Every structure is written in C-alpha cells, then in structure tokens.
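Hi team,

As requested, here is the filled-out complex form for the fe (ii) ion run. I kept the field names the same as last time so the parser does not choke. Let me know if anything looks off before we queue the next batch.

— J.
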Amino acid sequence: MTSAATPRMGLDHIANEIALHPRLWRRHIQRGATHRWASHIAVASTYSAWLVGWPPGTGIALHDHAESDCALRVVRGQLVETGRDARHADDVEEPGWRVLPTGFVARCRPGRIHALANLDDVPALSIHVYSPVLRTMDFFRDDHGRVVASRTEEVSDDRVSLW
Ligand SMILES: [Fe+2]
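And here is what came back:
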C-alpha cells in the first residue's frame, strides 16, 4: 500500500536501526551472486526497505526514485555515488561524485538522480529505505554529456532482483 504519510522515525534512523540488527537482513544475502541483486527485507505502510548486494564491478545507472525519499546505509564495503539534481540534468558541469564507506548513510531526496557502483575488488552491501514505498524508478542515459530520461521501471515485491 502506498501512502503519502511519512514514518515517525527518519529514514536514516530506520536504515541505521536495520543495519545494527543483522538478524533482520543477513538471511537475505544472495551469496555467490555475480550480478547486483536486491532483496526486499521490510515493508510498512509508510516505507519499504531493501538489502542490495554489489559484487565487484557492478553498479546501477543514473536513476531516480520517483516521489520516494531514500536513505541508504552501506553495511559492507564501499560504493561510489554519482549524483545530480534532476532540475539541472542537462547541465554537463553539475554532476559530482563521492565515496560512501561502510557505515555511511546517504540521502537521495525526490528530484535527485544518482548512480551507484562498487569499484572495489570485494563485495559491498547496502540497506535502502524508501518512503513512500518505492514503486517506480526512472532511468536516464548520457546523450553527449547531457542526461535524458530513457525508461521507467516498476518496482514490485516479486521483482526483487531486477533493480
Ligand atoms: Fe537509488
């Protein structure tokens, strides 16, 4: 059920709480995977939470989370995030990048687009919390230095390995 309501706790707090209790997510680890994977680990009326695995060299292209606010916490390894404000998506000067180390909590608010990658040689794990519940993601592509929308993907509980 999608709701416009927001959880009482902040999304970063929820991501931290989940991360600090591995019994909530450890069993969802897809061991031995060579592709990026995602396991749905929690859903409430106001948010959904996913565990995402990033084998070395994997990543996800520039995307947004539609109207969902997002907090992600890296629980193992590290990720590199490239991001920009979608309002300036055609500004070739605007993109920036940063390293998200283990324990780091990053926010990706509605209107922001980002890409994530594991550039290390060890797997990474991250916990992502979305509110409202994540239902769609818009993907973008680079067109000669300008970012243009390319497709929209629906996210549902039974498509956990597709994003
Ligand atoms: Fe994302």
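Two things worth flagging: The pocket of fe (ii) ion is lined by residues 63, 65, 70, 108, 114 (CB under 6 Å). The two ends are 20 Å apart (CA to CA).

Thanks,
J.
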